[in-house]
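COURSE: Structural Biology Practicum
ASSIGNMENT: Worksheet 4, Part C
STUDENT ID: 0417
INSTRUCTIONS: Below are two proteins. For each, the amino acid sequence is given first, followed by its structure token string. Answer the questions at the end about the second protein only.

PROTEIN I
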Amino acid sequence: MRGVSAAGILLAVLVVCATILHAPHWALGSTAILGKEMSQTHTLIRLGNPQLSDLDGPGASIDKHPTGTTFYQREWQRGSLGTVEFAHGKHTFVLDNVLSVLGTADEDVPKGIYQWDINFGVSPEQADTHEAARGRVMSLLALLRAVGWKRYIPASLPRLKGREAWIYNASSGVGGVYSLDSTYTPTIEEWKSMLPNRPRWLFQADGVYLEVVVDESNMAGLVGKSTYLLGVDAQSEFGFYGIGYFAGNAERIDNWKVLISAELAKYHEDRIKAEARLRAAGYTIDTTYQDPPILSLKASENRTQ
């Protein structure tokens, strides 16, 4: 499994980080789109076969790394930002004011592109007040829910919702890695205090996993505004579970479907312990939340029957 080596993944991260040095803007929808500029170029991307994504046009490039990993990238310039449609059946959505997209595939992975990273801004001006930026992010999250994306909580983390999830994420020892509840709108004080931790929301829908992350800075010294950069990371089950849980171990990545159930069981033990501590501290555990089925495992079971 050469293509998903640590070196290949590191290169992808470096490429994405390089794009963050530019600044962006955004919008979204399956059919609804926020703040769309008609001059923006429309690009369709999807997981799987690269031929089903728009990989041509100005700013597009394909980098075939010696490890066997292929990176599909497109960048847009300030004043001519992109509109990107992420196609996933009834869960399709559109993002505006896009700076860059980066797709990752591997010659040893027959299903093609297993990850897309999309970087975009919170406004055409690439900066806004905290109140306006919070409102735009909340609208984005609401539109994702409207097209069927559901919250995902990693197997090791407690099942909290609403303001309690926000408070827990800000607590000592958590460090902002928790999956926030997209239905909760924080106060402006809560919003500003969370920004150094890069707030994130995780979603899943029909075997695809999304991470929405907010980065804020005011290195430009703006008065009354900050620069906001948003990222959406979309992964297939192979990317999310295979590489996510077994990164750096090619043999285990190759056999992730066999290994993942036992691996998740270990993480669930951590969740149970964390929830017990939180119950004792007065938190309410959201027992209605259930981990999503792993569709690749169901497909494998059907083939063996």
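PROTEIN II
(use this one for the questions)
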Amino acid sequence: MNTITCYWVYLAIHIQPRLSVHHEQNGAFLMEKISATPILSSQRQTTIWRIGRIPKVFNPTRWMWLMSLLLVLGLWQLITALSLIQPFLLPPPIAVIQEFGRVINNGTLWKHTSVTLGQVIPGLLIGVMMGMMLGYGIAKIRILEALLAPIIVAFQSVPVVAYAPLLVVWFGSGGQSKIITCALIVFFPILMNTVTGIRSVPREWREVMRVYRANHWQTFRKLEIPAALPILLTGLKTSATLAVIGSVVGEFIVANAGLGMYINLARTQYNTPLVFVCAITMALMAGGLYGLVSILERKLLAWRSK
């Protein structure tokens, strides 16, 4: 008999305990807290922890997205099969799939997708860097907030479609104007999440850093970044999807290539399946960027589950 078994025999014979079991989850492990409360008041309560790996069970919520997709496709096919909407307005799914195959085979879809993606990524990076730097300054310096907040709010209240033509006039019809449009549309969410994240650091934690005589750089690296990281990554998820919108809006105004220009071309040709192809491609692009940020979030915040 091992030590744990002998101890249980001692509890059963000598103190006749009342047992209570409580389960707690810690990451990938299941911790079972077993409390033995003796009948005699002179004897103290005994607590034993038993740790074991959580058994893997089927999680149906992981596949809900697939069920939703199949439901949408089924309703779409039913509507088109019953001719409730004209195929000119809503083409059947098979027509969209065939158009997908055509533009993939001739290479035009990749050509326009690569142009849009080449504008989205630089615009996203520039907007994120600008938003984080200015957001950190606003969070730390109240005077800076009083000076810049009215300008930022006024600029953000103007739709991107309104100032996108001005950016084309100022920076030309090339990729520069689209990158700047992406950066501007990404800037505000990152700015607000940075300010919120830095200001959400508890005062008690800052006092602890002062007690240990940490300098500004140590406080920034050891306290402010880890504490604000969950909120910052949430803002980055939103910005990753908005960056695609910024690029496509710029391409709607004027462009020689890109998914926005390709949608305009399909619209003038009354090619509704091609419009659906471009819209689905943009959704997949935004979803891919969102997924990359989610993976980054799991890597950077893995310490929270330990």
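ANSWER KEY EXCERPT:
Q1: Confidence is low (pLDDT under 50) at residues 1-51.
Q2: The longest strand covers residues 18-26.
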